[in-house]
Write a structure and sequence with these properties.
- By secondary structure, this protein is α+β, with helices and mostly antiparallel strands.
- It is built from 15 helices and 31 strands.
- It is elongated, with a radius of gyration of 25 Å.
- Residues 185-196 have low confidence and may be disordered.
Length: 569
Amino acid sequence: MNESCSFYTCEQGSYFIHSLKDFSAYQGWCVFFDKNWDLFKVIDLISSDFNVFFSDKTLLLERDSSADFFVDLDFRFVHDFDSKGRIYEVYEKNDSLIVKYTKFFDDSLSEVVFSRFLAIKGLGSYDLLKNWIKKFYSYDAERGSLSELFVFRLLRSNSKKISFGFGLNEEEAIVNSLVKPVVKKRNDLFVDNNVQKKLFDEYKQALLSVDNAFSSCVKNVNHEFMIFAGYPWFFQVWGRDECISLVGLFSQKKFDVAKKIMIRNLRSVNKGILPNRLPESVLGSADATGWLFQRIFLFLKISKNKDFGFSDKELLLVEEKLDEFIAYCRNNSSNGLVLNGPKETWMDTDVGVDSREGARVEIQALFLSALELKKYLRSLVGDSDSVFKFRNKIRNRKTLIRKQLIKDKVIRDGINDGSLDLSVRPNVFLAYYIYPGLAMKHQWSETFDFVLKESWLDWGGVSSIGKNHDLFVDTYSGMNNESYHHGDSWFFINNVVALVLYDFDAKKYRNKILKIRKASVHELLYSGFVGFCAEVSSAKKLESKGCLSQAWSSATLLELLLKTKNIRI
C-alpha cells in the first residue's frame, strides 16, 4: 500500500489520499463540513504521481511528466452510497472547467437535495470523457465493507500543473481554485527515498514522521482545538482517544493547545461523565472521564512552577468536575469496585457474550488516579484533613481491588456477575500506565510475565486476548469485529506495553521494548499510509490494518520514542 498511497490532511479536517490505484472508497479528496461533522468526497482518483499542495478546499498538483492521466469524481457524503439521482454537468467558464453536481432525491430528478461545484484550472489540453465506470476497492473488500461502486470519469489530460477548487456554489469554487495551499507535500520527511536514508538514521526519521503524523490529527473546528481519532473514517472526537492522545501534545510541548482541549472537555463533563464522542453517539464510555483526569494530573506535574499551568479559577473547575466524577464512581460501585456496562471500555465490541461489562482493571486504576488527584488538589490549598481522609480512602480501595482481582499471584482483567474473568488481555499494562500503585511490585512482575507469555507476538506486539483463548483470531477480520478485540494487536497498546516495561524494569525487558519499538517504527515508515501510524495489525504478522492514521497510535509512539531514546539497537 505504501507504494501507491500518500495521505494529507489540514487543520480544518479535510484530507487527500493520493492513490495511483484503487484501494478504498475513502481514497481521494474529502472536504470536512464542521456544521454537520461530515466529510464530502469530491475526487476519487487522479492516476498520476504529483507533488501535492493541499488546503481545506483547494488542491494543487504539480509534476514533471507529460504522460496522460485520468480524473475520476465521486461527489457524495463519505458514508452515503445512494446511487440514485446523481447528475454531473460540465462546462467551461473563462479559463476554468466547471463541474456542477446535483443530488436528486431519486432518478425522477424532480426533487433537488443539494448541489456542489468544482472549478479546475491549468488543464491545458484535455479530453472530456464523462462516463461512469465501475471501481473495485481491494482494501474495502478485505475489510468486508462495500467494495464495488460507480464513479464519474471526468477527463483525460497530460497537464503538468492543475488546480482544483471546491465550493457550495460556482463562485466559491472558482475562488478556491485560485487559493495558494498551505499544506505541502511531506515526502522530505520519509525514508522512502534513498537521499533521506543517508541523511537520517531510522530513529530520527521516525521521530520526525510520528511528530508530523500526530499533528495531522489535531484540528481547529469551530475555533476550538480538537484531536480527531483517526483517518479516513474516525473523523470525530472520541473522548477516550482524545484524552489518551493528549500525551502527544505534552511530548510536543504544545501545552497551550493541550490545556485548551482539557478545559473544553471539563466543561463537557455532565454528572461525572464525559461524552463518548463529539458528535454524540449512543455508545457509552466508562473510561473517558477517568483518562481526562489522569491527563490533567500528569499536566499538573509537568507544569508545576511553570507559567503555562492552570489558573486558580481553572483549578476550581477541575475540582468541581472531579468531585462529580468521584461521586459517579462511588454510586456505580459494588464491593468497592467501579462498574461499567457492556462495550463501555476501550474494548467496545462484543463477540458472543464477551463485552467486558462488570468491574474492569483499568477502570479501577482510573478511579484511584482520580482520588490521588483529589488528594493532590487538597494538598495545594493546605487542607491536611482532606489529604489524610483521601489517603485512607485510597489505601482501603487498593486493598479491595487487590483482594478481588488477584488470583494465583496474577492481576486479572476484571469481574462480571461475581465471577473473576480469567481471560488474558493487555489491560493490566494500561492499569500500570495509569496508576502503578494499584498493586505491589512483585504482583506486577508476576502479572507482566504471565500476560506476556500468553499474548506476546514474535514480530513485536501483544494480542488483544490470549492466544489460547477460544475467541482468539490471528488474522484481521475487518468489519465483523471477530478479531478486533480478540486477537488484533493495537499499536497504541503495544506502545503502552513498552512504556510500562521500560518504567518497570528496562534491563529485564530490554529485548521486548526494542522489538515493540522496532515494529511500531517499521509500520510508521514502511507500511500503510507511509509516515502515519495505523490502528491495528493482525496478530499473525505485522501489517497495517483498520484505520490507517490513528491519533493514539501516533501519540503513544511519540511518547515511547522520546522516553526510550537512550536505548539504541
